[in-house]
Input
Amino acid sequence: MRDAPATNIVFLLFPGITQLDFTAPAQALCRMPGAALAGAAASLAPISTDSGFSIVPTHDFRTAPQADILCIPGGHGVTEALGDAATIDFIARQAAGAGWVTSVCTGAFLLGRAGLLAGRRATTHWAYTHLLPLVGAEFQPARIVEDGPVVTSGGVTSGLDFALTLIARIKGDAVAQAIQLAIEYDPAPPFAGGHPDRAPAAVTEGLKTRVYDAAAARMEAALKP
Output
């Protein structure tokens, strides 16, 4: 009996990526039976992350395998990637042959720039949800949003929830539950404040003032013609 073909999972890598947007879902997805992961970037040069270290791509855009699952992480580098024609073309070409097209955090805007969210329900990091209509998407307030073969997820840590959700869709709940147990994903955060719906208002407003008001303005400028 021949072995079943591998499931190619291709992650886009770009400078300024939020490393957990990539590494969290990769850690779960790599354990899915038959998974073969690839990290594709414009070149094979190390990719700087937001955490002070770099990631080395396995492929460039030319040599990357056709994705069965295409994953687009986010990060502050998205604003620059939105203007890179080679990056957007890679996303569009890969999406055309993929069974699943997915994003974590602000990676949703790269899907949108490639024309993949028009008329679809989607989500992204809470600080940027008001910008989803700029790429033709309808914001749905959920941590994971599935609209046909397109799956978007909220900010950063939601990438792990997204990965387990997708594994369950493809391989069944038991496989996803086994992977969740294997990586001991049993969250018990010290504070019930990982979303503005639950965080103290002063904490939310302070973070917006320090970081996200300006970051969202940069994203909006990058998205507008």
About this structure: Residues 100 and 213 are 32 Å apart (CA to CA).
